[in-house]
Amino acid sequence: MQVTLPRRLQCIVGLIAVFVPLVSAQTASQNFPELRWRLIGPFRAGRTVAISGVPADPNTFYMAPNNGGVWKTTDAGNTWNPIFDGQDTGSVGALAVAWSNPQVIYVGSGEGLRRPDLSTGNGVYKTTDGGKSWKHLGLRDGQQIGSIIVDPHNPDRVFVGVFGHPYGPNSERGVFRSLDGGTTWEKVLYKDDNTGAIELEFDPSNPQVVYADMFSARRPPWTTGSSYSGPGSGLYKSTDGGSTWSQLTAGLPTWSDHLGRIGFDIAPSNASRMYAVVDSPKLGGLYRSDNGGERWERISEDDRLWGRGDDFACVRVDPKNPDIVYVANVSTYRSTDGGKTFTAIKGAPGGDDYHNIWINSDNSQIIALAVDQGATISVNGGQTWSSWYNQPTAQFYHVITDNQFPYWVYGGQQESGSIGTASRSDFGEITFRDWYPVGVEEYGYV
Q1: CA 242 to mean position of chain CA atoms
Q2: What Cα–Cα distance (Å) separates residue 137 from each residue in 88, 185, 238, 434?
Q3: Which residues contact 198 (CB under 8 A, 6 or more apart)?
Q4: Residues whose CB falls within 8 Å of the CB of residue 183, separated by 6 or more in sequence, listed in order
Q5: Secondary structure (DSSP) of 271-286
């Protein structure tokens, strides 16, 4: 039986339906005007893939945790301060400092990874005052920015590698170029809606020569396996400032070899020398070229260097010696014989996943690493490293509270075990003495 209310009563009921939620929200705001977010820890770092120093200022570094914005240190990692908190996203996958004007920094949002669990971003940001203020530059639908490079002589000439939507196709992906500091963008390298750009590098001797790795892959959120890989992956080179590109294939695996991600670098002291970490089931390994990428040779099959190649694909060359090579994986490895043999210099299998390496071009003793445990810096060639217990940037998938008073908060930290932390302390501040591990792994529930 259908009951029809009188028109006046219908109006009254409609007004109640509209205004009650508004009044409730306003009442909550009025009743709790002093509620503020506060940091309760843990005071240890989380997953980070973006890091850069300033060659002319050896104590200044910038790093970007995947879900923690951008942080800055001016004392070589002894203390870190956030400089990106007021922006619309905290998810960052790339950043680049303009060498010709270190006050200019570009930031690419989105984690810049292929994972089943990640947060997306909303494009590119720029500061011209060292992080005091920021401006959004567009490329909003890219969602995942994998790499940014800035011309070492011109802070307005910038390339952005857009990886694209993590769980589906989209057209705003590939390599984008700006010649006016990010005011306008031109798509200069594009394969298809499933292929994105994940790494870019200039030839250190000639910024008109640009290299790009295109990666065609996708991993759905319900699995840790790969559900899609496509024929668009490959290493590309431009010799005219990014206007035209050609794929480098001689000696490298191809789509028929199930080619995946390629991480690469060019030796600053000899631009003809290049190294590449290549992900391919049967032909994976460390490759070397001595003619600017025209032909490649696999010099190591050691799976410590290329295993889990969709996660780890970073190789860096010492700025003064082309035979000293660094590779990041579950440890950070160094070779002093041109890639023939490697020794671990930082980390060990067990969670210390290393994503990125930055080496000061003026002093190769200064090295910075972006790790699942944040940023760590060495000023003596890797003999000692700064702490990760000064970066409250832990990444959590699930948290829960208990019924104690004061209550405690629990959760699994990405790649760093678990945590139970007090919501308040008896000593005026929450320190490492107020938290401890609990029995859960990173994806688990307490």
Answers
A1: 23
A2: 13, 9, 24, 42
A3: 112, 146, 147, 161, 163, 213, 214, 215, 261, 313
A4: 137
A5: TT-EEEEE--TTT-EE
Q: Per-residue confidence at 227, pLDDT binned at 50, 70, 90?
A: low
Tens of pLDDT along 69-100?
999 999 999 999 999 999 999 999 999 999 99
Alpha-carbon span 122 to 93, nearest angstrom: 11
Of 98, 123, 150, 46, nearest to 390 (Cα)? 46
Determine the average pLDDT of the residues in 159-167: 95
> So where are the chain's domains?
48-378, 396-436
- Strand 274-278 vs strand 92-97: parallel, antiparallel, or unpaired? unpaired
CATH class for domain 48-378? mainly beta
Give the dihedral of Cα atoms 173, 228, 261, 234; nearest 10 deg: -70
**Looking at per-residue confidence, does 5 or 76 come out higher?**
76
State both tokens at 372.
């699942």
Please say if the pLDDT value at position 60 is more than 80.
yes
CB-CB contact of 315 with 327 (8 Å)? yes
Tell me, what amino acid is at 212?
A
Read off φ and ψ for residue 29, nearest 5 degrees: -65, -40
The model's pTM is 0.90
Query: Span 266-293, mean pLDDT?
Result: 97
Both structure tokens of 356: 């990125």
